[in-house]
Amino acid sequence: MSTTNTFVQNQEPKVHDTDFEVRALDTMCVSDTEIKEPWYGNLKYLVIGVLFGIVFVKAEIISWFRIQEMFRLQSFHMYGVIGSAIAVGMLSIFLIKKFNIKTIHGEKIEFHDKKFNKGQIYGGLLFGLGWAITGACPGPLFAQIGTGATAVVVTLLSAIAGTWVYGRFREKLPH
Amino acid sequence: MLEWLKQPWPWYVAGPLIGLTVPTLLILGNKSFGISSSLRHVCAACLPAKIPFFQYNWKKEVWNLVFVLGIFLGGVLAAWLLSNPDPMVVHPNLQAEMAGYGITDYSGLVPTEVFNWPALLTPRGFIMMVAGGFLVGFGTRYAGGCTSGHAIMGISNLQMPSVIATCCFMAGGFIMANLILPFILSL
């Protein structure tokens, strides 16, 4: 972790660290800590991921059939899951901001505002089409493979390819 | 206790647990909840190909890759130790519709008749796995996030772009499931 900046400079001397640009485009899934943790600090995220994956499976959130029911208005289940997750997330963020709760390392918790661009509409619609076909958003793909649906590896590789193609042609797409 | 855990968990247990991931990641290490970026980090790590979008400090985001590895392991553990012995119960209308496409196996969470290796060589299997996966990866990155990053983290943080993105996810899903997917499943 401590060699990250030198890594970028060594490998690509002409390319600057574009972290700023990363955040400007999508502020999701980013690490805001300045603290350099040893490698085993990441084990925390492994444990949370495992618990998260178990919930995914046991609540049938990764079920292709539950997604089909959601988009046919045949079941409240997925609306209940997503709705109550948002409610708990919203209350948590409200409390973190109100009481200025710090991280376990004493850092201030950072939030980023997202800027609107047309990608949220075009990309959102395209993802929605794929979501109903595969019955999975990116997280459930990993859990589906874990439950033994090995052919979903192809879906995951194709999703990585889709991400790459977006990156390759990003400048030519309307935003 | 174990018997209870093996039953399908209701939404009011699962939803709040997923919501709690948001403050847990923030408090443990200032990490914003989101999963689709893991796909981008894989591109940045494995095949950046001098594309500016993949030139960033991906090693700082290794936590996100460890997190999705955990989701995979969670799937393994749940299927191994906590699996529900009974087939899934779905809405009778869905069951009737699916029977028309030859989908009758409810023992797994994904229909084995559609998502299997030999099916990759059929038009239906190719569209469902390869084209479907491509749309998920391309669409989430174009939108700047997925169900976790936009719908849960973004809306929890009161971000209007995330509300717009989530509405578009749902619109795309309704269009596909009701208007297009019946033709694909009939192939």
Note down, in words, how this protein is organized.
The complex is a heterodimer of chains A (175) and B (187). Chain A has helices at 4-11, 19-25, 43-58, 64-71, 77-98, 119-134, 138-146, 152-169. Chain A has 8 helices and no strands. With 175 residues, chain A is mainly α. In chain A, helix 3 crosses helix 7 and helix 7 runs antiparallel to helix 8. By secondary structure, chain B is mainly alpha-helical. Helix content of chain B is 65%, strand content 0%. Chain B contains 8 helices and no strands. Chain B has helices spanning 2-6, 11-29, 37-46, 62-81, 92-100, 123-143, 147-156, 160-186. Chain B is globular and about 50 Å long. At the A-B interface, helix 1, helix 2, helix 3, helix 4 and helix 5 of A face helix 2, helix 3, helix 4, helix 5 and helix 6 of B.
List the helices and strands and how they pair.
The complex is a heterodimer of chains A (175) and B (187).
Chain A (H helix, E strand, L loop, with lengths): L3 H8 L7 H7 L17 H16 L5 H8 L5 H22 L20 H16 L3 H9 L5 H18 L6
Chain B lengths: L1 H5 L4 H19 L7 H10 L15 H20 L10 H9 L22 H21 L3 H10 L3 H27 L1
Helix pairs in contact in B: 3-4, 6-8, 7-8
Care to count the β-strands of chain B?
A: 0
Class by SSE composition of chain A:
mainly alpha
The helix-strand sequence of chain B is: HHHHHHHH
Q: What would the principal axes of the Cα set say about the shape of chain A?
A: globular
How would you describe the shape of chain B?
Answer: globular
User: Roughly what fraction of the amino acids of chain A lie in strands?
Assistant: under 5%
Average of the residue pLDDT scores of chain B? 95
Biggest sheet overview of chain A: none
Please give the share of residues in helix of chain B.
55-70%
Unreliably modeled segments of chain B: none
Q: Structural class, from helix and strand content of chain B?
A: mainly alpha
Provide the residue-averaged pLDDT of chain A.
86
